[in-house]
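hey so u asked for the seq, here:
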Amino acid sequence: MNDTLTKLPRALVERLTRPFSRFVQIETAAGAVLLAATLVALLLSNSPWADTFLGIWEIPVGVQIGSGEAVRSLKEWINDGLMTLFFFLVALELKREIVLGELGQPRVAALSIAAAAGGMLVPAAIYLMLQSGQSGAAGWGTVMATDTAFVIGCLALLGSRIPSSLRVFMLSLAITDDIGAILVVAIGYSNHVAWAPLAVGMGACAPVRGMATLGVRSVLG
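ran it, structure tokens below
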């Protein structure tokens, strides 16, 4: 591969991705934090303090200025805010692998897509077989998504004992699986299309694509 293609110019967005990458590379820290948080959540959810613990996530948090307000529960801020940032940073790392890494090879990318498709279809099929004729059969879409955060945590626990190619494969599989599951939920479980937010999202992509076409790598100059 040409040396000019293996080195990307410094970009403003790297200030966001670099801390995330460093955290993922610290195997013991990432794995320990994920495992500890999971165990604490499981213990509290099954303890006498379960109602208090679950109630914390429903506490409204936000700001209100005049008649306008941006108030959501703590759980919604995490699900809609922090998880959006998490997937944004993970997707940036995945894009780097597509542009410069192993996922730039069509066969490798096709393997991740095929594995993700299997990871969605097989659980959904098992769920439908178990729930056939029952009221819960309509929930088949809920079992399709892979927990990307746990995938990263598991990879972190394994550390250097696994090759980097497997890390890239698992990460791309998890993200592709999540994208497919989100599309299933959006198409199969929605009653209507919210065109306004969709238009805002598409509109936000246009200037980013334009700057990429022009070769802009940093808005600071």
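The mean pLDDT is 77. Strands lie at 60-65, 68-73.
lmk if thats what u needed
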